[in-house]
Amino acid sequence: ALFCGRQAPWTAEVFNAIPWVLTGIFVFAVIYFGVRWFTLNSIGARLNPVMGRQIAIGSLIAAVLISVVTWPIYDDGFWDYGGLGAMDDVSQLDAMRGQPSDTLVHQGKGNVWAEWEDDCLPYSETMGQAAWDDLGNDEDTDDWCLIAAANWVNWGIYQPTRTVLIDFAGDNGHADSETGRNYGGMEITYVGNADGSLLTVGESRTFEVEDLGVSSVPADVWCNFRTTVRGAGTHTQGISLTDSSGSILWQNEGGVCQSTTLYLPSGASYTVSFSSSSDGADDSVSMIADFSAVAYQPLMLAEDGTALTRSESSLSLEELVVLSVENPTYHKNPKTLDAKLIYTLFIPCLGVGAIVFLVMRSMARGYEWEMNKCYGCDLCDDACPVRLFTAGDKLNIIYNTWNNEDDGVPLYSCLTCTACTNACPQLVDYDSYIDIRRNLIVGGPPAAEIPHTLLQALLAAEAEEDADEAFISVEDYPLDSNVGYYPGCVDYIDQEMIFSHVNEGTMDLGETTTAAFTLFEEMNEDVTYLGRDFLKCCGHDQKWQGLSEVFEKLKAYNQKKLGDSGIDTLVTSCAECFRTFALDYELDDMKVMHTTEYLVEKGFDMELATDDDVTVTYHDPCRLGRQMNLYDKPRDLVRAVDGVDLVEMEHHGEDA
After folding, report:
1. Radius of gyration over every alpha carbon of the chain, rounded to an integer in angstroms
2. Which of 79, 565, 598, 642 shows the greatest Cβ crowding within 10 Å of its Cβ?
3. Residue 172 burial (CB < 10 Å; 0-12/13-18/19+)?
4. What does each C-alpha distance from 280 to 91, 99, 277, 440, 449 come to in angstroms?
5. For the chain, what is the domain count?
6. Are residues 494 and 558 in the same domain?
7. Are residues 578 and 479 in the same domain?
8. Quick count: other Cβ atoms within 10 Å of Cβ 193?
9. Residues 258 and 401 in one domain
10. How many helices and strands in the chain, by DSSP H and E?
11. How far apart are CA 212 and CA 375, in angstroms?
């Protein structure tokens, strides 16, 4: 087989590993998407890109570890699982007696001779090996060389039920009839009585089973019987094996020769006994019988890799034990390829599917793939709060874009509240449509058509490096706490100008900062005010209106400054700032909290009360609720005020 083009075992291992690699990919996909699904359902939009990468890396490590740990199950042909139906019974496998042996090859011949030339031993070095006995008398020993048995240990599946290879072929010569070492038996020849009367003969032999590191070894016991004259007389035979105490370990039945294989404890002596009775056979008939018991010991290889010859060795038992060969195919299914083929019909196919899915998912970065996921159920349209006040016009971004319609509500009417994302059964990522906004800004309608153009221009100018000098440096800013409070833009912009359409001169969002610090001081919490003379705008509006370049500039400035400030906890009352810092910034070493979270964590209990009983309701900000999964803590603080009765709106929580 070697010189007919058979490849080395490792090439087959590489090929056979492909299904298991595909299995590992499938395991990765299951772990990754399972953990991601659980995380999304538990913390919602707080699943930021950094956490996503951590989940991906963790899933990859887990998949690799699982694949490595379970590889022996696959490589051994699912031995413990019956080879998935492609494996013989263990009793049949126990009868396998193949073993690596010294092999003669013709020098200089074969298409892989160049690879094996250095391993081929000449006759002069191995003349004592039994393999040379198979060479014909007309063959020149100089034309042949011997490949040692050690080279074949990994080339096949031998004796899969044994941890150590057993020398069933007798290459080592463990059995010695003269000394009774691992062997007992003899041949018997006798003739019948002249008158053909009953004649009984019997013999026994005692032998020693060596202890060569295996607690019990397989042994064959058998007998043979024949007569020189066919059909002459009647004959019965008996054979038995007893231990040193005389207990019968095995004996034949029916008065005829039988054979058996049994395991004998090592380091003990045994006796094999044989008897034969002949009746009706006279002295012209000869009876010929033989019986034996042979115990098989571990295969032992010498330093050059050839089978050790005991008759030429003076090694002690302790030295011989070291030369035994550990079975590399222990508990390996001989029909491994069949078992792997059965396995390949199922799980690896899912691995291929996982690869396709992962590739397709990577392509889903663009909104074209998201549009293909939409099947026009209009659930997003029904969930949209703007839709309720637009006299029935469609704000279905997918529908309008796909069908090239421009008669719906203008795209900038979208509040980016993610109500549509929550309602979508196809899990369309509507956030990807920020790309559409970018295109509208860069090459679309004039800036005058974009809402709050004046404010945008102001914040865009703030993002430029020339504006950095207008902000106080870290060295000059009074940073006396590791907790910082960011007020957002409410203290910076003209409330009357920006919110005149809703506050009618009665609401000042800047009071939020004053209220927050009043509570901080009452709780004896040392919090540093990170004013808008220290940090720039967080960039929330720029990001959601598609001004990515402006957002990245603001982000880079603020991120560096926060890192240099020594702040480890960033608190803000603005839901939009909170969401932006938590999800869109890479503040890995900083804890970002909403004011309500911070108060609850610090054990806020000021025993507040109203002068008169009052009924209030709470509106869940889109950024704080649906996108940051923060619903309960604000309500807990409101309910903690005596005299306040909190009632819920019809649409609240995820439906707000």
Report:
1. 44
2. 598
3. buried
4. 42, 46, 10, 116, 125
5. 4
6. yes
7. yes
8. 14
9. no
10. 22, 17
11. 74
CB atoms near residue 533 (< 10 Å): 12
Q: Tell me the one-letter amino acid at 503.
A: N
Query: How far is CA 249 from each of CA 106, 160, 243, 258, 260, rounded to the nearest angstrom?
Result: 47, 26, 7, 14, 11
Q: Is 31 within the bounds of a domain?
A: yes
The model's pLDDT over 48-70, given as tens digits with 9 standing for 90+, comes to 778 888 998 999 999 999 999 99
How does the average pLDDT of the chain come out, rounded?
A: 84
Cβ–Cβ < 8 Å for 250, 240 = yes
What are 312-351's pLDDT values in tens digits? 888 999 999 999 999 999 998 888 888 888 888 888 888 8
Say if residues 221 and 293 touch (Cβ distance below 8 Å): yes
- What count of Cα atoms within 13 Å lies in the side-chain half-sphere of residue 431? 12
Q: 100, 164 in Cβ contact below 8 A?
A: no
User: In this structure, what CATH number is given to the domain that contains residue 409?
Assistant: 1.10.1060.10
Q: Can you give the pTM of this predicted structure?
A: 0.52
In angstroms, the CA 328 to CA 626 distance is 58
- Beta bridge partners, 259, equal 222
Nearest-5° angle of CA 551, CA 557, CA 562? 120
d(CA 169, CA 98): 8
Residue 62 lies in a domain: yes
- Residues in CB range of 490: below 8 A, 6 or more apart: 509, 510, 512, 513, 574
**What is the C-alpha to C-alpha distance for residues 183 and 308, in angstroms, rounded to an integer?**
18
User: In angstroms, rounded to a whole number, what is the distance separating the alpha carbons of residues 541 and 84?
Assistant: 59
Q: Which residues contact 301 (CB under 8 A, 6 or more apart)?
A: 148, 149, 150, 307, 308, 323, 325
Any idea which residue has 């994302």 for tokens? 421
- Structural domain boundaries, residue 226: 183-296
Phi, psi of 238 (to 5 degrees): -135, 135
What pLDDT digit, counting tens, does each position of 394-419 carry?
555 555 555 555 544 455 677 778 88
DSSP states along 148-207: -GGGGTTSS---TT-SB-B-TT-SS---BTTTTBSEEEEEEEEE--TT---EEEEEEEEE
Cα–Cα distance measured from residue 490 to residue 479, given in angstroms and rounded to the nearest whole number: 21
Q: How many CB atoms lie within 10 A of CB 171?
A: 23
Residue 309 and residue 129 in contact, taking contact as beta carbons nearer than 8 Å: yes
Q: Are 613 and 584 in contact (CB under 8 A)?
A: no
* Residue 255 contacts residue 282 (beta carbons within 8 Å): no
